[in-house]
From TrEMBL:
Domain Transposase IS66 zinc-finger binding: 47-87
PANTHER family: BLL1576 PROTEIN (PTHR33678)
Domain of life: Bacteria
Protein name, UniProt field: IS66 family transposase
Positions of the Transposase IS66 central domain: 103-396
Length: 421
């Protein structure tokens, strides 16, 4: 079951998914094919009734999928040293330098570990346990050091270039999530630290990029410092720290946050009210009005920024203004500010100027969902690995997470060292 907007109604819509024809063939077409031919041989080629030979009249082909577990291969580099037979001059062949001097780490091994941790959310200690089942004793502490060294020696250079490119743009998103770091000085181990994320989305007109930044606190001075030199729009949630940024940064709001609060109210009402009485609620009416805005956004998703701006001015602006005019007709002084519906109404009213700003520019998104999805993957992994041991580890996580998400943005496999990124 899924929820869809139908005209002015926000209703559940049930449908049966049909399996598309040829799906199995398409799913398997990207893999190498190992053909096993089942033929008659010897006496089996002779007919049991008349003794003559059988001939092939057709073939029947079926496909299954075989899984080959990961394997390790020891790479032994043999460097040959030569001497001139006349003057005894010495010369040696060249080999690619080691990824980490004195280490067995290779780009493919480190990429595989990063992919497991930052894409699949598998902690290093679990990876160490799996490696032991393959016969490799590789401690999680060793892998953690590899993550830190590779992020500092290689990925940080890309990280800085990406940051410079982001600051030269004019359309950015921002969000933050918890990140516990045990070795932060002068704080308890249970203290919350924060991972901030800055990104550009598909509407920005430039390359999509995501940058994670570890910070000790959730203070508003962190985005101010990070975005120093940036001029343009910043799409965020309603966190007040963003509203203290310099005038050259124009903050735009997230309509999804406004909608989410009314959706929570409606979920409760559906449990308490019967026979569709919840359709007469403020929450339902608000969702219908916000739903119209999202219907308009869906219709212009593939349009140019100029076309999006024009449609928003003609269609979305009257709907959005009517939504806020409707909210202002309510007696906010009588609202229970601690109630779900009171919180939902006041959030929209207090965030009005930020929620309307997406109408100003066709490059802006109506919400901050893309940024939230990027940071959600970090949150999923955090539930598994729980914390970072050191500040260097947290910073390495920020840099490595950026790299893996960037690969996924452009449909690259983070483990594919043949991809031209």
């Amino acid at each position: 079951m899924a929820n869809f907007y139908r005209g002015t109604h926000y209703l559940p819509f049930t449908y049966n998914r049909k399996k598309p024809k040829g799906k199995k063939e398409n799913d398997l077409s990207v893999f190498e094919v190992e053909t096993v031919k089942h033929k008659l041989t010897g006496d089996d080629l002779l007919c049991d009734d008349c003794g003559h030979k059988f001939k092939v009249v057709s073939t029947e082909v079926s496909r299954t999928l075989k899984f080959i577990p990961a394997q390790f291969i020891t790479v032994e580099d043999v460097v040959y040293v030569y001497s001139c037979t006349n003057c005894s001059k010495m010369k040696r062949t060249k080999k690619d330098p080691s990824l980490l001097k004195g280490s067995i780490a290779t780009p493919t091994l480190v990429a595989g570990i990063m992919n497991s941790k930052y894409v699949n959310g598998v902690p290093l200690y679990r990876q160490s346990q799996e490696f032991k089942r393959y016969g490799l004793n590789l401690e999680d502490k060793t892998m953690a050091n590899w993550m830190i060294r590779c992020s500092e020696d290689y990925l940080y250079l890309i990280y800085e270039r990406m940051k410079q490119a982001l600051l030269k743009g004019h359309y950015t998103h921002c969000d933050e999530t918890r990140c516990q770091v045990l070795d932060e000085p002068e704080q308890k181990a249970s203290t919350k630290n924060w991972m901030w994320v800055y990104m550009t989305d598909a509407l920005s007109g430039g390359p999509q990029m995501v940058i994670f930044q570890y910070e000790r606190t959730r203070g508003g001075y962190h985005p101010k410092t990070f975005l120093e030199g940036y001029t343009g729009y910043l799409t965020t949630d309603g966190y007040s720290a963003y509203h203290g940024l310099p005038d050259n940064i124009i903050v735009t709001g997230c309509m999804a946050h406004a909608r989410r609060r009314f959706d929570e109210c409606l979920t409760i009402l559906k449990k308490d009210l019967k026979n569709g009485e919840w359709k007469n609620s403020i929450a339902y009416e608000a969702l219908c009005r916000i739903g119209k805005l999202y219907d308009i956004e869906a219709s212009i998703r593939e349009s140019s920024p100029e076309e999006r701006y024009q449609v928003r001015q003609e269609q979305a602006k009257p709907v959005a203004e009517a939504y806020f005019a409707w909210l202002r007709t309510m007696d906010t002084e009588e609202l229970d500010h601690k109630s779900k519906i009171g919180d939902a109404i006041l959030y929209s009213i207090n965030q009005e100027k930020y929620l309307l700003r997406y109408l100003e520019n066709g490059h802006l998104a109506i919400d901050n969902n893309d940024c939230e999805r990027s940071i959600k993957t970090f949150g999923i992994g955090r539930r598994n690995w729980l914390f970072c041991k050191s500040i260097a580890g947290a910073q390495a996580s920020a840099i490595s997470k950026r790299s893996t998400i960037e690969c996924l943005f452009y449909f690259r496999d983070p483990c594919d060292n043949n991809s031209k990124y």
